[in-house]
């Protein structure tokens, strides 16, 4: 690894190890996932073996997804309620300003 300074920022170069490192952002089943491909010098594409999740990990992931879905729905209802409250407040303020103008005239 070699350190470089560019525009006042220190960057690291892995010239000895990586010939190319690429990253891609994906969305799978509503979740954000990153796909990373590593190409090593003298080796080529380096694949990390996939490890099957345990039943406990699967249950935990299902609970997390259910919890996130509930939270998203709760947040959506909260935002909708706040929008309605703001519209009512805006309408009330507009009505008050019209009433004041009518009273003054």
Please explain how this structure is put together.
The protein is an alpha+beta fold. It has 2 domains: 1-50, no CATH class; 60-105. Helix content is 48%, strand content 32%. It has 1 helix and 5 strands. The protein has one helix at residues 55-104, and strands spanning 2-6, 9-13, 18-28, 31-40, 44-46. The strands form 2 sheets. Strands 3-4-5 form a 3-stranded antiparallel sheet, with no helix packed on it. A two-stranded antiparallel ribbon has the order 1-2. The chain starts with a strand and ends with a helix. The model has no long low-confidence stretch (mean pLDDT 76).
Structural class assignment: alpha+beta
Please, how many helices?
1
Strand content: 25-35%
Characterize the largest beta sheet: strand count, sense, and whether it forms a barrel.
3 strands, antiparallel
Mean pLDDT: 76
In the sheet with the most strands, the strands line up as: 3-4-5
- The proportion of residues forming helix, as a percent range, comes to 40-55%
Morphology call: elongated
How many structural units, i.e. domains? 2
Write down the secondary-structure element order. EEEEEH
End-to-end separation: 79 Å
Low-confidence stretches: none
Rg on CA atoms, Å: 28 Å
Number of strands: 5
Question: How are the elements arranged and paired?
Answer:
Layout: E1 2-6, E2 9-13, E3 18-28, E4 31-40, E5 44-46, H1 55-104
Antiparallel strand pairs: 1-2, 3-4, 4-5
């Amino acid at each position: 690894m070699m350190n470089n300074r560019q525009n006042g920022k220190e960057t690291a170069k892995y010239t000895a190890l990586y010939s190319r490192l690429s990253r891609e952002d994906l969305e799978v089943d509503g979740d954000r996932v990153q796909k990373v491909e590593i190409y090593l010098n003298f080796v080529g594409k380096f694949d990390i073996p996939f490890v099957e999740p345990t039943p406990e990990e699967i249950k935990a992931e299902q609970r997390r997804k259910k919890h996130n879905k509930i939270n998203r729905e709760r947040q959506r209802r909260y935002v909708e309620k706040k929008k309605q409250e703001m519209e009512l407040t805006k309408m009330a303020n507009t009505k008050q300003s019209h009433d004041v103008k009518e009273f003054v005239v």
